[in-house]
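WARN retry 2 of 3 for item q-0093 after timeout on previous attempt; input resubmitted unchanged.
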Amino acid sequence: LEQAAKYSSLLGEHFTETYRDRVTELLKSRDARLRAGIISAIPGNFYSDFRQSLLKALQDSAWEVRAAAVQCILDTGEREDIQQAARLLHDPVERVRLHSAQVFAEKAEREFFPKLEKLLNSKNEMLPVKLSLIDALGYSRQNGAVELLIKEIQKGGQLQEHALAALSRKKDASSITAILKSIKKTDPETKKLLVETLRNMPDSAESVLEARLYDSDSSLKEVTVEVLESIGTVEARIRHLNNRDSSVRREAAAFLLQLGTLSAYRGLIQAARDPDEEVRSFVIKALDRLDSAKGKSILDELLQDPERRVRAHTNWALERYRARRL
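OK item q-0093 returned
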């Protein structure tokens, strides 16, 4: 189908008038599969030429023609045309509903999401249609897709596993921010599932989470820190402090300082005798934060840490730090 679309585009570009006349003729064919194939291959720049034929195709007696028309209209159609195509979300043929749900979930603007939510909540809709919709939401670029998927996760039931799988594909910054906002306010069980979903995402998602630590918007820092600790990022960065490459140790130290939690400081304080001056400077900055009313509770815990090595490094670094301030 993709090759047919490319070939159709080339024909339209080089033989415009002939192409337009031939497509008009073929759309009158009695062969439903041929009409559906032609509609699927119409280039976007020819949409206005065949707009009336495409809108008419939404009411075609052949299900495959109606399904192809929905796809074409969602790809290049205007808002009012898409509104007409949305009627096929309730088409009497299951295959048309399945295809329409998939296309709308993946490509429609947020204003159409209430229709998709209504379909998901319908007790009369078939399971394959709902599964197709949920799967396609995983590819949508709209934040509303994340909200819909999380609602399905909160409901539990047979769609929950599929919603989690779809959500795990939402690794862009905007989607991860939406997930973090949900984690901040949702119930404990859903929170656990969402954190696990973030854990199972590829490294690119973890990079987005780390970048949020340096964001000016501090409203999500607390939940971001909590997630980073839950998915093992902090432990991994502490291990990086033993790397032979000083640039890796510097990056790890900077990250742990920015994190600012007990576990982060516990790891960072052990780099107090690092041979690299820049790494040691992060330890000094950490102590500067800890040697204050705000950081006193964390400092006290480090000084009473059950591991002797941590206590020793904390005392040694603290003495050096206070001596420098005299």
